[in-house]
Amino acid sequence: MEQSLMQRFVQIFAWWTGTTWGTSFTTWLRGEFVGTDQFGNRYFRTRNGKIDPVLDMERRWVIYNGPADPTTIPPGWYRWMHHLGNEAPVNDGYKPREWQKPHQPNLTGTPGAHRPQGSILRPDPEAGISAGYDAWTPQ
């Protein structure tokens, strides 16, 4: 019982963990499912391709599978989401070019984040400081 109550609380307030009740309700009421990518993200658009009078185009949105991480949107879906093309890459057999790298998660804020030389968060913070540097100390 306590776990389901926590899940409900998270769904109401924590948009970054997936979808909230408001997004789920709007998607149910006005959304049309378009497709899913290899990461499990689900893509939607306004029902019947209805044009939004404010945007002057149809609205398109994604419900992430897990935490909201825009870097998990593949190039074909990125193209569709940003109205660079009208064909959704549902079964188009998209093949990445040789210079395109596979997805790597965004590690910002995690222990795996990049720590440049001299950062106090590095395991060896002194490793990046040059030997000729003398810190200033007040007299």
Automatic annotation (TrEMBL):
Region of interest (Disordered), ranges: 92-139
Which InterPro entries did the record assign?
NDUFA12 (IPR007763), WW_dom (IPR001202)
Q: Which GO terms describe its biological process?
A: response to oxidative stress
Q: Where is the WW domain?
A: 71-104
Name a single GO cellular component: respiratory chain complex I
Which PANTHER family does this UniProt record tie to the protein? Answer: NADH DEHYDROGENASE [UBIQUINONE] 1 ALPHA SUBCOMPLEX SUBUNIT 12, NADH-UBIQUINONE OXIDOREDUCTASE SUBUNIT B17.2
- The protein's name is NADH:ubiquinone oxidoreductase subunit NDUFA12
Q: Give the source species.
A: Acuticoccus mangrovi
Q: What is the lineage of its organism?
A: Bacteria, Pseudomonadati, Pseudomonadota, Alphaproteobacteria, Hyphomicrobiales
